[in-house]
Amino acid sequence: MRKNYETKLWGGRFREGEDKLMEEFQNNYTETLWLLQSDIIGSKAHVKMLVKCEILTEEEGTTILKGLEAIEEDLKENKLDLDGDYEDVHTFVELDLLNRVGDVAKKLHTARSRNDQVNLDMKLYVREQLKAVMGSLNGLLSSLEQTADENPWLMPGYTHLQRAQVVTFKYHLMAYHSMFSRDLRRIQDAYKSLTESPLGCGALAGTTHEIDRQYTADLLGFDTVYSNFMDGVSDRDFILEALADFSILMMHLSRLSEELCLWTSAEFGFVTLDDRYTTGSSIMPQKKNPDAAELVRGKTGRVYGNLMGLLTVMKGLPLAYNKDMQEDKEYFYDSLNTTIQCIDIMERMISTLKARPENMKKAVKKGFLNATEVADYLVKKGMAFREAHSIVGQIVIYAEDNEKAIEELSLEELSKFSDVIDNEIYTYIDYENILNKGIKKEML
Predict the structure, then answer these.
(1) Domain ranges of the chain
(2) Which of 86, 175, 238, 286 has the fewest CB atoms within 10 Å of its CB?
């Protein structure tokens, strides 16, 4: 006697049931319950198309739609009994529908395969979640801009982590605003590229039923349908594109996290993070650790790993669908939640941090950050830049040896290096004035 395949959508050609380990190995039902809403939305569109094409009667379509809507309502109200040995969410929906409306539910899957069904579900879910990422990014961009506007303080700009030239804290933060703005545009582009509906591609070669693929595409908000059935069921580019965009975004978050870790250290002391986003030490009472920033930095590797994981899954697959592709869901879901959580925690850190402008200004004073402006001053006096560069290098050595800033050197000391130097230099190399000269005004 063959096993009753009551929680599977297949089994007719098998003499024996699955090994229990195999069932557990391939089952991803509980890990993908987040696909339920998308599955129901796709199924409703499919039923409407089947009725339009007279594959289902009006009565059959109405009965199935009411059943799907009832499942959807119970899902929204957390009333669905999700327990059970289901192979996947598609199986759950179809069997739950069967319990609600009877044998007519068995007609739901007409002219559809799980292969086009699951790719549709993922497209619907990815599209919706990209909107959530955009919302979080807009919140971070707003907080960066507000915090920047409130903190126009002078601070050192760095190259090679060495003090280089004077900038403002506002300008430094707005560099990240520019990065996250590009991230937002990338996510928007990924969203806009989700134009093709896979529904109707079947398992890999379409269906002999006279269906209307464009009708379901229109119902679901897609512009068109896949031109090739085999591509339609095996395409995971849209997930890879989202994961790549998340990875670049996380790289920017990680860079900002590293800055926060540096700036909050005693060695820099440029900012203080709110207590709500820091932790202490179990043994050292004085510690205030930037754990939120460190966790964002650490979770970046996790998102990178998911991208590389799916790229590796896809790199050797022949057409069309292969079970390997089931791995796409956990990669995307983990990266999505990690990325949104990191954006949101960064937004809170940025909106609540306190700048310490006095420490920034001290760092400016100690860094010879007006050395380039001394060279520019000499060029204005008619000197070639290469000669000016060499002379300023000698001035810096002299200032270091005498433990003075350049602006603290007397005119007598400065004129030893060039007779074109006069009192005007002090105005020219004043840090506030530097930011008001030429194109640097853009930093204010």
Answers:
(1) 20-107, 114-361, 368-443
(2) 286
Q: What is residue 152's predicted lDDT score, i.e. its pLDDT?
A: 97
CATH code for the domain defined by 20-107? 1.10.275.10
Q: Are 273 and 349 in contact (CB under 8 A)?
A: yes
Give the whole-angstrom CA distance, residue 439 versus residue 442. Answer: 6
Output the pLDDT for position 11.
Answer: 58
Homologous superfamily of domain range 368-443:
Fumarase/aspartase (C-terminal domain) (1.10.40.30)
**CA triplet 324, 330, 332: central angle to 5 degrees?**
105
At 235 the pLDDT is 98
Which pLDDT score is estimated for 1? 28
Per CATH, 20-107 and 368-443 having the same topology is answered no
Note the CATH architecture for domain 114-361. Up-down Bundle (1.20)
- Report the first-to-last Cα separation within the chain, whole angstroms: 81
Residue 8, both tokens: 């599977």
Catalytic residues: 160, 281
Residues 29, 32, 37, 41, CA torsion sign: negative
Contacts of 342 (CB under 8 A, 6+ apart): 250, 253, 295, 296, 299, 300
d(CA 351, CA 370): 31
For the chain, which ranges sit under pLDDT 70? Answer: 1-15
230, 320 contact by CB (below 8 A): yes
